[in-house]
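Annotated sample (chain length 227).
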Amino acid sequence: MTAEDGSGSAEGALTVAACPVCSRLQDVERAYHKWGWDEVTLSFPDAVRHLEPMPAGVDAGQENGIGGETSGETLLRCPHCGTPYRYTWSSEYLANGSEDREELQRLAPAQARQDLPEGEYERLMSLAGLWLFHANGAVRRQAARSLLGHHLAAGDAAIVRPLLAAEDEEILRGALFLMRDLYREGREALDLAPLTGALETLQHHRDGEIAGAAQYLLSAAHAGTRR
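Output written by the structure step:
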């Protein structure tokens, strides 16, 4: 199979579209449960249970001192294609029953690099450039997310400008949404100055989500502080 055939792999490597687990997951999945309120329960897809924890990426959780709330996060990895994920959870104990919130987010390899098996980061990144031109939109989003995360982690913000100039909306989503999330979470020190020109163009994009992410990042760049 080739990277362009819409379903599969390059040299036997599975894309998120061909993977038996990742193909059944969105980029972000959320779950919610409130004790005694089954009608509002939102469950994860069954595919989530097939993801495996990265031993070094487990956080057992902690009390945050607000209303008996506990929270934590775990890095997970697909055993089939190697795609990394972050699982976060919080549980709040209330008078009328506990509330549990969970989120699963597909990551760029750079976000989990220190916890990936030896050689896995290099393997995933060797495929990202090829899969940027894949027929499947989810594969292109993950490829753009992977490339942008790699270059930002290396401090090469200017190199990602071609991603932000892409006509393909899936590439824009993968790149922009990762930048927005990294900036919002404060997990990375981002220098947005080299990208303000591209962001100024994208804030007028016809897609509202793309325009909104660009506007958020542009405001953050002009303010010079993380919000």
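Annotation: The chain is about 30% helix and 20% strand.
Annotation: The CA atoms of residues 75 and 86 lie 5 Å apart.
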